[in-house]
Amino acid sequence: MTFDSRHDRLWVPVLMLAAILGSFAFACAAPFAALAAMLALTAPARRGLALIVAAWALNQAIGYGALDYPRTADSFIWGAAIGVAALAATAVAYAAMPRLSALPLAARVIVSFVAAFAVFELALLAVGIALGDTAAFGASVVAEVGLVNVLWFAALIAVHVLLGASVRRAAAHG
Questions:
Q1: For a surface tag, which of 26, 70, 84, 136 has the fewest beta carbons within 10 Å of its beta carbon?
Q2: How many CA atoms lie within 13 A of 26 on its CB side?
Q3: Rounded to whole angstroms, how far apart are CA atoms 21 and 52?
Q4: 97-116: string of b/e by CB count within 10 Å (b at 16+)?
Q5: 86 within domain boundaries
Q6: Which domain, by its residues, includes 85?
Q7: What is the pLDDT of residues 98-156, one digit of tens each?
Q8: In angstroms, rounded to a whole number, what is the distance separating the alpha carbons of residues 131 and 65?
Q9: Residue 83: inside a domain
Q10: What letter would DSSP give residue 137?
């Protein structure tokens, strides 16, 4: 799973559309772990880190601009924490990739996602503990957020595969 120039022109907008749709659908619970893992599987690290920052910026713009997030100190802290957690999740997914190179692709996909999700949630939990606000970290909430991320990750994988097949087909026909 890698980029090429034709695929890149299509894949980056797909990822940003996923960030936008995820932000509208899930607000501050947008599927950043799914995006982080997908970036680690499909993009060079520098580009992936830049794209996760772009996805976070879109999420915040949608939240404060369209979803009327409260403009309070806690809200801004949580917004920044989500950005840091998304970056950390992406960095961990990238760091895991060289260590996983001997594994089959399916195993790399699963491990990169689990690592990204765990780091994302743990980073946010640390902020929740510091702020005395851990209500969103009960088992049922984390499981629901996990399921949302799993479904988005599966959808992104499917779109990536279909997009790659389409690009290859177009290249073969001229």
A1: 70
A2: 20
A3: 15
A4: beebeeeeeeebbebbbbbb
A5: yes
A6: 5-168
A7: 888 899 989 999 999 999 999 999 999 999 999 999 988 999 999 999 999 999 999 99
A8: 25
A9: yes
A10: G
What's the length of the chain? 174
Give the count of domains, the chain: 1
The answer to whether 31 and 22 have CB atoms below 8 angstroms apart is: yes
Rounded CA separation 29/22 (Å) = 8
The two structure tokens encoding residue 86: 């998304």
Q: Cα separations (Å) of 96 from 1, 18, 111, 116, 148? A: 15, 23, 8, 10, 22
Is 173 among the domain residues?
Answer: no
Whether 43 contacts 51, CB under 8 Å:
yes
Q: What SS3 state is found at 5?
A: helix
